[in-house]
Write a structure and sequence with these properties.
This protein folds into two domains: 12-242, Type I PLP-dependent aspartate aminotransferase-like (Major domain) (Aspartate Aminotransferase, domain 2), CATH 3.40.640.10; 245-368, Aspartate Aminotransferase, domain 1 (Alpha-Beta Complex). Helix content is 37%, strand content 14%. Helix 6 (137-147) links the parallel strand 4 and strand 5 (150-154). With 378 residues, the protein is of the alpha/beta class. It has helices at 12-24, 33-45, 57-67, 88-92, 111-117, 137-147, 198-208, 231-242, 244-261, 296-305, 328-333, 335-342, 355-368; strands at 50-54, 75-79, 96-100, 122-128, 150-154, 162-163, 166-167, 174-178, 191-195, 268-270, 285-288, 311-312, 344-346. It has a seven-stranded mixed β-sheet with strand order 1-9-8-5-4-2-3, sandwiched between helices. The protein has a four-stranded antiparallel β-sheet with strand order 10-11-13-12. A two-stranded antiparallel ribbon has the order 6-7. The longest helix is centred in the last third of the chain and has 18 residues, at 244-261. The chain binds pyridoxal-5'-phosphate. Pyridoxal-5'-phosphate (PLP) binds at residues 56-58, 82-83, 85-86, 128, 154, 156-157, 178, 180, 191. Pyridoxal-5'-phosphate binds at residues 56-58, 82-83, 85-86, 128, 154, 156-157, 178, 180, 191. One of its GO terms (molecular function) is transaminase activity.
Length: 378
């Protein structure tokens, strides 16, 4: 069996919209029409005042850190388990990256660990809505308010998630989304920064296009960045976004399928549902309880032996060579991240997944941990 674990849903709507941008989106008011309208609709959906489309989510984080004036001498806290993109630009703006542990229930940043990790140098915390899961936002908001630090929400993979009636991407001073090929809506590569504060918006907007003057062509007041989006990619995002509910529901259908297929096995954990909300389920992950006596490596090896690809739960960032490598002290500081990460894998998340293949994949996992295959008729 050979199928992709991640991939988008592209219909005639997307194809026709991109064709329109291709034919008509180059002159006059049309040349940034899709960028501006994708931004406008995306901000409105999330109840935010401003949106800035970027070439990817990583650059959106960079712009926000710059817009907040974070730099040398500052510390920024991120959760241990996330894709490195959440953290890379903390280094690039010259600040120090500090890792907080994750919470056993949410798999996102632990509020308790966050509070312990704050120092007088802490300027901001980047919480991550990991795989569509939501952190304990009430507690985290409270802590950031108490300590006067910026709350940044990395909602790269949380489109459609809701926490206590509030959409992912509407928390904190700013939030970021990814439209990578693997995400719920895609532009191939692309990102979005959402903001409410006009001054921060204007600063980030200015920094996105070489800090150019609005009044005089080719006149720059600062050495800035080139993080401009393209109208062509925005047209794809605009079309995909018209289908946001349909696509989130398709992702949730996968999560619900996994819940059902593994429902008879104790001590297995799938993306939790946030309180009074829903998990957008960009990528369903599976954590094996200790009683199964497996590691993500042993499960991925067994999957490979069956001809299947396995993807690991994110490694704790602090253990990687990029951040100086593992040490007993690092593991002791953030034990939950190190423990959960050892026992987690990501499950297939592609929109174009054959139901029979999916069942075979799940049955492969069941047999690896010593459970009988399930039969389902589609
Ligand atoms: C949590 C998280 N943050 C940031 C990113 C970066 O997104 P991009 O690849 O669009 O830069 C990703 C990408 O997967 C992610 O999972």
């Amino acid at each position: 069996m050979n199928f992709e674990l991640f991939g988008p849903s592209i219909t005639d709507l997307e194809i026709n919209t991109v064709m329109d941008a291709m034919k008509n989106g180059w002159y006059g008011e049309k040349k940034y029409w899709y960028v501006e309208n994708f931004e406008k609709e995306f901000a409105k959906y999330h109840g935010r005042a401003y949106a800035i489309m970027t070439p990817n989510c990583t650059t959106a984080i960079h712009l926000l850190l710059l817009g907040l004036g974070i730099g040398p001498g500052d510390e920024v806290i991120v959760p241990e388990c996330t894709w490195i993109a959440s953290a890379t630009h903390i280094t690039h703006v010259g600040a120090k990256t500090v890792f907080a542990d994750i919470d056993e229930k949410t798999w996102c940043m632990s509020a308790e660990s966050l509070e312990k990790t704050i120092t007088p140098k802490t300027k901001a915390v980047i919480v991550v809505d990991l795989y569509g899961n939501m952190p304990d936002m009430d507690a985290i908001r409270e802590i950031t308010k108490k300590h006067g630090i910026y709350l940044i929400e990395d909602s790269a993979g949380a489109l459609g998630s809701v926490y206590k009636g509030q959409k992912a991407g509407s928390f904190g001073v700013g939030s970021v989304f990814s439209f990578h090929r693997t995400k719920t809506i895609t532009t191939g590569e692309g990102g979005m920064l959402l903001l409410d504060d006009k001054k921060i918006f204007e600063r980030c907007h200015f920094l996105r296009d070489h800090g150019r003057s609005k009044e005089v062509h080719y006149f720059n007041t600062e050495v800035a960045f080139k993080y401009m989006p393209t109208n062509l990619l925005a047209s794809l995002g605009f079309a995909q976004f018209q289908r946001v509910e349909e696509l989130v529901l398709a992702k949730r259908k996968l999560l619900l399928f996994y819940r059902e297929i593994f429902s008879d096995i104790p001590d297995l954990y799938l993306n939790p549902e946030p309180p009074e909300g829903r998990n957008g389920a960009w990528c369903t992950s599976l954590i094996f309880g200790h009683s199964h006596n497996v590691t993500k490596e042993s499960v991925m090896k067994a999957l490979n032996e069956k001809g299947l690809e396995g993807r690991p739960f994110f490694y704790p960032l602090s253990c990687m060579p990029a951040y100086g490598g593992a040490s007993p002290e690092k593991e002791a500081k953030n034990p939950i991240a190190y423990d959960l990460s050892k026992r987690g894998i990501c499950l297939p998340a592609a929109f174009q997944t054959d139901a029979q293949n999916l069942l075979e994949y799940c049955n492969a996992i069941r047999s690896i941990i010593g459970f009988q295959e399930r039969k389902v008729t589609f």
